[in-house]
Q: What sequence folds into this?
């Protein structure tokens, strides 16, 4: 499976634009725990009142509780060597096998009852579910990322049992013991690292698959968030993914083609980027410069003396994640979502440099200033002009209802070879037209309504059966970001004049390209 035609979509079952992403999102990397990626934010409560915003609505945002570590999170050493990590996966395979034997034995005894549900696989018993959760939360790293990825698939894509297991994985992330965390700090910042800060909390306020985040204060009083990477995860990306998928494929029925070779390569590349905190710091600084004069978005400053390959310090950000903005007025929700789409279009067609992780907690809304703070730049990437020149024309063709041009520009973009069957080509064009409807609609587009999901779902069998080539590698990250932006608009029930926004972007793009 792949993202061969996902131009505009979302990733939740309740989104009218979501069904295609639900079917093919397994080809892109996940976005971490719900509300708890490796963001550099803790103070999720704004103060003050913005004119025109009703007091009770503002209070609902200001009073949002700070999310911290999951109730399931606990202090646990991270296995740092490949051998120790392999041992955990080997233990999981053995444990799952023993769990199956136990379940079969229980069912074979007169009056025997097993812990699995009637008609369910003995591999997915409660005991085996706990084994999977505990193993992934112990090793963390790429394996935990894959588990979190699987959690967002709907019940028609993976079994409800498997989805429940990975939902528990997504809500759980253990953190390093104090001694292991201090060891990383000393290795990265030197034994005198304490001289760089006035204080640093030893227990993190957030923990995810690659690292954990601690709150601290600089000697000048600046509050900071310090991200500390788990030892061994950067060196074990490929082996972790292979080991986990090997265990799961032996024990449970994963959908055919869930992790195609090219999608795995894209996943591994992005995880490698995210493990390089120096690269992330450079990306954050780049975005801070690009958005320096933007009235709506801000990027926290990087604390250079706290930046290494495995440690990243930034200003502590304030605000609430986007999913906590649903109680705001329709006008405010529309403004937030309009700005998100404007940012996506600027990133792709103006900067040609995009932060591709759409996790809710990477966008923090501050009601007092009516601004959004952007976080987590590890998955940022560039896009070449050859790609954007063709991509913008595909979107414009869909916006204009020009089916022939959608087909031609899809071939130019290398989505298609030109040798596909007519059935496949027709299905591809139809899907692009459906997913491009927000940009074809005159007036405000209602993201909370429509039957896009049902219409696209009917095209999927043809698209999976007859495709001849994988999509351009740029689209794995791009479509994840666009999916997240459209999901945010759907979740906040936004009404946005998308066509006008895109038309302005299109004309500005070609004016700048021809200048």
A:
């Amino acid at each position: 499976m792949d993202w061969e035609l996902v131009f505009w979509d979302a990733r939740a079952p309740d989104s009218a634009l979501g069904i295609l992403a639900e079917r093919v999102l397994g080809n892109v990397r996940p976005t971490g725990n719900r509300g708890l990626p490796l963001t550099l934010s803790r103070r999720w409560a704004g103060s003050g009142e913005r004119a025109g915003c009703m007091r009770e609505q503002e209070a609902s945002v200001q009073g949002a509780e700070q999310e911290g570590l999951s109730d399931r999170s606990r202090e646990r050493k991270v296995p740092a060597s490949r051998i120790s990590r392999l041992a955990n996966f080997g233990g999981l395979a053995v444990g799952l096998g023993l769990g199956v034997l136990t379940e079969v034995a229980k069912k074979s005894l007169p009056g025997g009852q097993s812990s699995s549900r009637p008609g369910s696989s003995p591999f997915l018993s409660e005991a085996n579910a706990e084994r999977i959760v505990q193993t992934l939360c112990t090793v963390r790293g790429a394996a935990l990322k894959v588990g979190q990825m699987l959690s967002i698939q709907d019940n028609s894509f993976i079994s409800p049992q498997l989805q429940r297991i990975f939902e528990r994985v997504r809500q759980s992330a253990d953190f390093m013991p104090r001694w292991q965390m201090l060891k990383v700090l000393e290795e990265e910042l030197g034994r005198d690292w304490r001289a760089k800060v006035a204080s640093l909390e030893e227990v993190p306020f957030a923990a995810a698959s690659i690292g954990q985040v601690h709150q601290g204060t600089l000697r000048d009083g600046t509050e900071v968030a310090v991200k500390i990477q788990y030892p061994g995860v950067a060196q074990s990306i490929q082996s972790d993914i292979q080991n986990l998928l090997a265990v799961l494929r032996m024990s449970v029925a994963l959908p055919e083609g869930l992790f195609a070779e090219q999608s795995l390569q894209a996943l591994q590349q992005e995880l490698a980027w995210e493990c390089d905190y120096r690269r992330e710091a450079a990306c954050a600084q780049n975005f801070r410069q690009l958005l320096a004069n933007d009235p709506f978005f801000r990027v926290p400053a990087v604390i250079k003396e706290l930046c290494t390959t495995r440690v990243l310090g930034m200003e502590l950000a304030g605000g609430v994640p986007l999913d906590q903005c649903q109680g705001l007025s329709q006008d405010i929700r529309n403004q937030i979502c309009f700005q998100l789409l404007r940012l996506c279009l600027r990133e792709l067609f103006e900067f040609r440099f995009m932060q591709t992780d759409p996790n809710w907690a990477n966008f923090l809304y501050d009601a007092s200033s009516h601004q959004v703070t952007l976080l987590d730049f590890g998955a940022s990437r560039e896009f070449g002009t050859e790609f954007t020149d063709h991509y913008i024309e595909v979107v414009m063709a869909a916006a204009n209802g020009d089916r022939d041009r959608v087909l031609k520009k899809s071939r130019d973009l290398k989505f298609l070879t030109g040798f596909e069957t007519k059935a496949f080509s027709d299905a591809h064009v139809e899907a692009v037209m459906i997913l491009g409807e927000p940009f074809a609609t005159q007036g405000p587009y209602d993201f909370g309504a429509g039957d896009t999901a049902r219409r696209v779902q009917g095209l999927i069998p043809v698209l999976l059966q007859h495709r001849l080539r994988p999509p351009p590698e740029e689209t794995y990250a791009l479509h994840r970001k666009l999916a997240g932006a459209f999901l945010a608009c759907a979740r906040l029930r936004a009404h946005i004049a998308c066509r006008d926004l895109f038309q302005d972007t299109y004309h500005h793009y070609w004016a700048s390209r021809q200048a």
